[in-house]
Amino acid sequence: MPNLSLLKNHVPGAVWKSVVVIVLLCAPFTAFSQYWQAGGFLGISNYSGDLTQKRVDMRYTRYAVGLHVKRDINRYLTLRAGLTYGRIAGADSTNTDTFLLRRNLSFRSPVFEAQVGVEINFLDLDEKKITPYIHGGVGFYSFYPTTKDANGNTVKLRPLSTEGQGMSQYPTRKPYNIRQFSIPFGAGVKVLLRDNLVAGFEIGLRKTFTDYLDDVSLTYVDRNSLLRSRGRQAVDYAFRGDEVNGTHVSRSTYPPDGTTRGSDKYKDWYMFSGFTLSYRFGGGSGGYNHWKRQKASQCPRFF
Predict the structure, then answer these.
(1) Rounded to two decimals, what is the model's pTM?
(2) What is the CATH number of the domain that holds 97?
(3) What angle do CA 78, 84, 86 make, to 5 degrees?
(4) DSSP SS3 for 37
């Protein structure tokens, strides 16, 4: 190996500084060949909250679709951004708990999410052809809970203030924001189908900061106050136990003010899981050898 200190003594200072700058700039180019990826997601969406007796009720699985772009920084680190649309739902009527059956609430909601984050790959995909990975980031999403009436018509729940949101009698209960941040995270596996085609399967959880994905969180408010402030429809959809007409549950009346309607101990969650397919491009010449070393001519030229 050449003696750098001796070499420095025989090279003019200006030239030496230029050499150092070029080496530092060329290092990342000679080490890696970065790739872009563009692709789609097709899978399912689920929800966890006050209308699920279990952590997740798979009977209310709905579809989810999405688009994404990614940037491979090196063999093990990938930046990602994406848009996903899905639907979530839940209903008391399919639970077995007596309290939930008597409450008889239901909801459905679209969820549109934009998210950015990182993926950490455990193996070199080009070498092993497969790698597990974990991912995390930040998301911004919108939702809008609705339900169906006895005739199948859609009823928007948020304007009804079913738990007294925005009513002067309950000043601490503000209308919930239908656009919020979430924390997406999860794990998956990628498979290299071809040099420029990557397939995968991913499970993604979304931690939210709201308990109103399903329009249920706290206690019932006074029936008469709700009737005066929001009308008959608000009373009808704050408590639907009087619609139950079966042998397992008797007909019920509207609960007194302060009776438990939901629980704000835990926030609601939503999940996107499914398959991904990505086309990767860029990264220099010479085919799609993902981390092929670049030629020296690809380094910046200054003189």
Answers:
(1) 0.81
(2) 2.40.160.20
(3) 145
(4) strand
